[in-house]
């Protein structure tokens, strides 16, 4: 097939391929050097993404639904999200396939981490493809390295590529197609594979359509015949996917929301400045013009209401480093050509410009890396909530949001015992508990039946804080009697009297908890009875994780000394005063009562 010129750079030189510039095939030493560079960049990109995989910010609300769909598809269980997560069955299938093949759900601490691992693999594959594409476009080794380094180390890329966004998968498919298209001496099989990759990209995300102009432009430059073959195959596939198979294959974008483009740019302002310059300057470089056009089309989508900024940036992310490096190479060659009579001055100017650029980028990155804040806790509040539910509500029916559904299902909770918000379209299924990972106000407005189910709910345990807060609520609690005396004041009065007893030896912290009225009334009553039989030493009222922040009284006590008498006393209790657990520990005897003490166990106290 005929080979056409790739156009000219600012210097008038062709950037087509390294072999065309040198007139000879790269030597084995050059290939080994390129391999060493690629491996080093892969180690850097992969290592940083592992470090920031568990970062908590920026957070994407629709990520939880995508994780749940990936889990449900891999485990052949139904799931309907609460809306706003978009639709990408082919994308979910890819995520599910990786997690099944790699056993990611079985190895990872959380379901979210398991599916985010897929994003890490996609980012590493994209790094390799970007290197090959840069070299096949004629970028020198230093320029290709700079392009990959920008996407490997940028805080914006680290923060964005850790999120479960199907557009990352679409970007990998598109990069694969572009590498195939730019393959020297390409055969028919390369064209067929390129068409398949482009089709896979569009079926993963409809935004990948904006990368088709770059692919078509490159194909026409190389050979109109090749362009026609790929166009026919691609249109045939799209016709089937968006026609007879639309109900199964047609993707839809997620709803727009936070984080928006301003949130992402704040992580790496230098990326925004360099990308804007490169997108415009790339139009003047013939070899880069196809990518600049596709990049500008994607930028235009950022201005369209309802289009998610995160999805657009995920596809734009690998395009702009390529343009930045390509423009830098073109400018360098132009400066060298213009400074052939004053070589030293030309080199000095290039060094100064490069140093200034590195300093600007470094300052921006210093802020971006600190803003990502990788979390040392790989489990998270949902894992803590799951442990609490296992101890206190095992086998109960739950109302859960999308994020809680995925984590609890991955932890072994039967999916048939969980109802997501979408199940409350008409009426909520019967449930005893509700688990939500964020403020449920939006869900309550969207599903009136859910609002009715949560009206009489009371928060029993809470884990995490801020946007990461997870609440566990008991449903159908009896309404509080406005005329009843305060239970808190009764506990505080009885606790203070108990702490002052000479029959008790109470640590300072435990005495403070008693006087504050934060001890379960069953513990207060039984400790008073036990003190009448034998001297009692209390070292602590250990908090049940999650309950203190929800305002629940402490229902555990740690005794020291007289273990036999204490254990016999509590194991002999009956009915309301029977504890859920009496355990001998290294420090003595730990007694635990179940949730929800009956009201009226303590005499109400009122001021004279």
SSE blueprint and pairings:
Layout: H1 18-22, H2 28-51, H3 63-74, H4 89-102, H5 104-107, H6 111-136, H7 141-153, H8 155-161, H9 166-181, H10 188-204, H11 212-222, H12 224-241, H13 246-249, H14 261-267, H15 269-281, H16 289-301, H17 309-316, H18 319-338, H19 343-372, H20 381-392, E1 398-400, H21 402-410, E2 418-419, E3 433-436, H22 441-446, H23 448-454, E4 458-463, E5 470-474, H24 487-499, E6 504-506, H25 508-515, H26 521-533, E7 536-540, E8 556-559, H27 563-571, E9 581-585, E10 588-592
Parallel strand pairs: 1-2, 1-3, 6-7
Antiparallel strand pairs: 3-5, 4-5, 7-8, 8-10, 9-10
Helix pairs in contact: 2-6, 2-7, 3-4, 3-21, 4-6, 6-7, 6-9, 7-18, 8-14, 9-10, 9-11, 9-17, 10-12, 11-12, 11-16, 15-16, 15-18, 16-17, 18-19, 24-25, 24-26
Task: Write a concise keyword list for the protein shown above.
about 600 residues, alpha/beta, 5-stranded mixed sheet, elongated
Task: Give structural notes.
There is one protein chain. Helices cover 56% and strands 7% of the residues. It has 27 helices and ten strands. The protein has a five-stranded mixed sheet. It has a five-stranded mixed sheet with strand order 6-7-8-10-9. The longest helix is centred in the middle third of the chain and has 30 residues. The protein starts with 17 loop residues before the first helix and ends in a 16-residue tail after the last strand.
